[in-house]
Amino acid sequence: MSIPGSLRGIQSLRNVFRAQPLQANLRRLSSTSASAPWFIDNETNAQTEHRAPPSAMSRIRNAPPLPANTPQILKEIHTELLESPHLDISQLVVSPAIPPAPGPDLPSKPGQGRRKRGVTYAGESAYDATNGLWSWFIFAQVKEGTESRGAIDSVVRIVRKVLLNRTPPVPLPPKSRRQMQNGWAMVDAGNFAIHVLSKESRDKYFSDIIPR
After folding, report:
1. pTM of this prediction exceeds 0.70
2. Which of 31, 91, 175, 207 could, after both became Cys, cross-link 141 (CB 3.0–4.6 A)?
3. Are 59 and 89 in contact (CB under 8 A)?
4. CATH topology assigned to domain 49-99+132-205
């Protein structure tokens, strides 16, 4: 006995409707299993995804701690420099300006003659009220042997990019390649400065300035 065409069509539709819930369940199970196993809590899995990779954590641990009152802009530069493969992270130092120790006072000497010439006390200086041209410093030392292979130039580009991408951008002087050839480059950002230097330049010029 042959089945009429209309009945065959109805039967095929029933088979389609029966298969749809099964396929939906399979898709749902496959997506759930791909995201996380059944025995891992979703909240725990989310925390694991946002955790910093081990390499980044080790670099942060190797870097000297930032001072508590570090300005935000220096924190941003510091964060970017931590990712540079050219730097010796253990020598990445952020420090406020430390004024030099005052020298001995000049002996007071009264003036001579009618015009009182030769007086050694000239009053208070406005320069003495400040700590120099810059209030903060960053000292970034490149790895030994990389200073002549473009490492200093690469780090300077990172610093300038951070400063120029701010709103408003920090005004910077033109980049000088003459400094980089000497194993030392400085980015003057107004009230703070970033020194990118080799170990030789650090030991030669900054051994008594950079805090240990």
Report:
1. no
2. 91
3. yes
4. Beta Polymerase; domain 2 (3.30.460)
